[in-house]
Hints:
Chain A is built from 14 helices and 25 strands. By secondary structure, chain A is an alpha+beta fold.
Amino acid sequence: MPAKETEKYKLIVKPSTAQVRPYVVGAVLRNMKFTQAVYDSFIDLQDKLHQNLARKRTLVAIGTHDLDTVSGPFIYDAKVPQDISFVPLNQSQAIRADKLLEMYSHDSHLKEYVPIIKDKPVYPVITDQKGVVLSMPPIINGNHSKITLNTRNVFIECTATDRYKAQIVLDTLVCMFSGYCDQPYTVEPVQVEYPDGERVQYPTLYYRQQEASVSYCNMLTGVNETAESIAAMLTTMSLSAKPQGQDKVIVEVPPTRYDILHECDIAEDFAVAYGFDRLAADMKMPPTNTIGQEFELNYLSDKLRLLLSQNNYTEAATFSLYSRIDMGERMKVNLENESWVKVANPKTTECEAVRISLLPGLLKTLSANKHISLPLKLFEVSDVVLRDTCPSATRGTGARNQRHICAINYNVKVGIEKVQGLLDNIMVALKVPYAGDNNSQGYYLEEKEHPSYFPGFCGSVIISGVPVGHIGLVHPEVITNFNLNNPAAALEIDMQKVLELINLGK
Amino acid sequence: NMGAEGMDVQQQILHALEKNGVVISNEFAVSEKETHQKVVGAIKSLESLGNVINVKQIALKTWECTDEGNNLATSGSHEARLFNSLPPEGRSLTDIKASFPNSNFALGAAMKNKWLKKEGEKVIPAVSAIEDEVQIHLKAIAAGGENSVPDKIKAEYKKRKLIKEVDMTVFEVSKGSAFTTSVMKQEAELTKEMIESGQWKGKTFKPFNFKSKGRIEQRSGYLHPLMQLRSEFRQIFLEMGFTEMPTNNYVESAFWNFDALFQPQQHPARDAHDTFYVAEPGKTISVPEDYLQKVKKTHSSGGYGSIGYQYDWSREEAHKNLLRTHTTAVSARMLYKLAQEGFQPVKFFSIDRVFRNETLDATHLAEFNQIEGVVADYSLSIKNLMGLIKGFFEKIGITKLRFKPAYNPYTEPSMEIFSYHEGLKKWVEVGNSGMFRPEMLRPMGIPEKVTVAAWGLSLERPAMIMYGINNIRELVGPRVKMELILDNPLCTIDKWTPTGNNS
């Protein structure tokens, strides 16, 4: 519909908005009929758009106003917080913008939006000709222009950091609510004037044509319908469609269907219209003929897991995320010297770090099972993660998984020879010979200190001269740190390294 | 344990049987001066040998001393003690009454027996020696020889509360069909020496008590129930001809985790709220450059028949490292690799860990295992996807399936998979699925006519249903109680039938 007064329904954009929230769109809904239900639905749609499409108001923020309480044209500017003062929604006193943000940072509903503009040099603000503040996006509207059940004419403005999204949000609002105007499905445009001279009219209400091939729709769905039949079914999905020849359907995509990007979106609507139950009644396995294959590392890991259970060890399944304390201090390990992966945004301390060893997890499992009779023998064959700068080893990421075997024997009295026996069995299974004095191939043990183990009772497991892990008595301090009180003999080896070395030897 | 002693009693019983034909347990006990309990024990042992003896249980009434009766049997009757305490010249009545307990009774009885006579204020012994009939009787009764005491006298003692009548079970033993006087030692164990020497042939064995509980010397080893279920699912995929993907990289770039899947950079799932971003190493080292350019273009301005998302795609955003939110990132890598090597139809699967930065509760953890199946072939349709899903779920006993249209950023069409839960009497969601979008496949170099079907579910959810667990921390993590592992040594898929018991 043409604008009643083109001069009045303008949004003039000032240059400083570019620093914080460059884009704005607007529209006018004339002679709306608001019942409580319509009003609630109006607010609800805005909330939903804010949460999803507008990505929690960071991309787009919607402001809706009673047009009759303000006088256009409207100015969209960005000012220093101290220069902005107005009566915000549901308040009675004017409050300065910086104080307002302070206030809302404690408000359960609004606090998550405060960081969007808080530290910016200027805050966005929309005012009318008389200086009345309509809104300070994305935080809050002014009380002056608030919509009530008596509102007849609605002014919608959406400020944004994503221009395209703002257009979609506005189109959606307008399409959903223009039905309540006295003249249903009409809207009056608003012109946006950018400082560089660009002039754009909103809402765009962009309808576009999307072609869909009949053979593609049929192929994807697994049916054999004609162009006419497909077009008819699409129409039942509120997509206006017409057949064009035998193999094409032309669909008019309305502004509300911004999710339609490709003909596969059309094909899906067709499939839904056809009926999934109907399709399921004729389902068939694909003719794809392949022979299955296990990932070798997993194949070998499963064999080793079985072997460890055959040695009377019980499998634990622990988390790969740890707190720093569990991985560092409690294990007497200085994390500064380790290449561990640090999580940027953990919600709890339990998710601060990705494990570099399986031992803390097993110690925690022991701690939760003090009611079980001793000896307690646990194992786990699973991945730890290490930082690494090699692109190929890390698949381009900068960190790699490493498959470890870890076993612990916790008892009133326990010696290293207990887990040494286990290690011997593992090596026999992997066909790694014990390196005698003259044999440089094969494995042997050598005393070596490790902070988590008791000095004098810790050794390095070495294969063909390369250290692959540790074996020893867990340090008494570590035992106590995990709320345990019996000695424990433990073993942890890098299974992938072992496999590499064995294969090299071949 | 009878031991050698018991042997003797058994032997004695057999000899008595040989001589007399019948043995009554309580009479035998008296005559052999053994306790009745021991005799009964010996009879029972003999009985267990088979048909050596026949035993008949008889209920008898028998006389037993009360506590007082036993007292008198030991120390003598009051009257006898009184008599024995008197010096030849006797004692004054007053004296006796003051110092001797039960004096009145004792005096009366002693006088009646004419053991004492009165002489003025004194009583003096009237005879030189006495026989304490009461003690003799009580001793006899205590030893089981009550028949030696006349009934009239027994009635008196009963009145005096020295004896009481009790019920007793005695056994009448007679010769059995396999009667023999030689009782052999009963072996409990079959030993190496017996076998080697052949001696076992000449021995009798005490049959094993099958009602007793077994004994294990050392706790055996176990595999974790969740890992066992994982093995079952791996097996199912292999049976269906699927190849396992190498998923051993928890740290992934946003590029492979999101952008390669055509998930826009503005999508809420990429929020710090839902995804674990990595601080160190914060930036991914590299992704294939040519491919990156194609992905960038498809996102920002479209291509391959798509209008794209119309936004400014950020290289920096794509190079952020995170803990992967799904193993679909690996599926993307594999499909890209396949396209580079020359496309051919494939079936891929993976079961591995993924990470979500969610608020934790009884059913949600920060990390869990995702099961994923992917099939890439020419002209695959939704019907094929449904067929694959049906084949897969049938393997775990789920046959009633329905498919509901859904939304996924990287599949179109998408379907939620529902199965009918017999116990809850409703349809519950068991997985998610879809056909990968062309905007994802084409930039990789996957040919136009190829469509890719994929489906997934979590491993923990079916495990919780199978093992009847409501809190996921009871299944996985360090706080799992070992009882879960020890009580579930074997995982068989047929347990996974959603019946009323495990809801």
